[in-house]
From TrEMBL:
Organism the protein comes from: Nocardia vulneris
Name assigned to this protein: TfoX N-terminal domain-containing protein
Name of one Pfam family that matches: TfoX_N
Gene3D superfamilies referenced in this protein's UniProt entry, alphabetically: YgaC/TfoX-N like chaperone (3.30.1460.30)
Domain TfoX N-terminal, chain residue ranges per copy: 19-99
Length: 115
């Protein structure tokens, strides 16, 4: 897993006080709130949950691009260029991801996710 350890530490410092956990999965480090992924840091950058309704606004911000999985855009998620993540930008993206994820119902431990 070749993700940026310094960025991982910066994210963890911001999210740990809220009870967000980090788990190595999805070829990187995934940040979870009540079992729901809110962000994932991996070798291509940081992907964050912005919600389906937030896609246009998110993609209008510097450093954001659609998250592609097997060539298909993933609605509700964007991929961020790490070079654009100064403290203010990182705080803003993580707050957005937090707000979207906090609206989701908690996942039960061991529950299977929809495919």
């Amino acid at each position: 897993m070749a993700y940026d350890e310094v960025l991982a530490d910066r994210i963890s410092e911001r999210l740990a006080p809220r009870g967000v956990t980090a788990k190595k999965m999805f070829a990187g480090l995934t940040f979870l709130w009540q079992g729901n992924a809110m962000a994932n840091l991996y070798d291509e950058g940081l992907m964050v949950r912005v919600g389906g309704d937030g896609m246009d606004d998110a993609l209008a911000r510097p450093g954001a691009r659609p998250l592609l999985f097997r060539g298909k855009p993933q609605n509700g998620w964007v991929l961020l260029d790490e070079e654009t993540l100064d403290d203010a930008a990182l705080d803003s993206w993580l707050e957005w991801a937090w707000e979207c994820t906090a609206e989701l119902p908690p996942k039960k431990p061991g529950a299977k996710t929809k495919k």
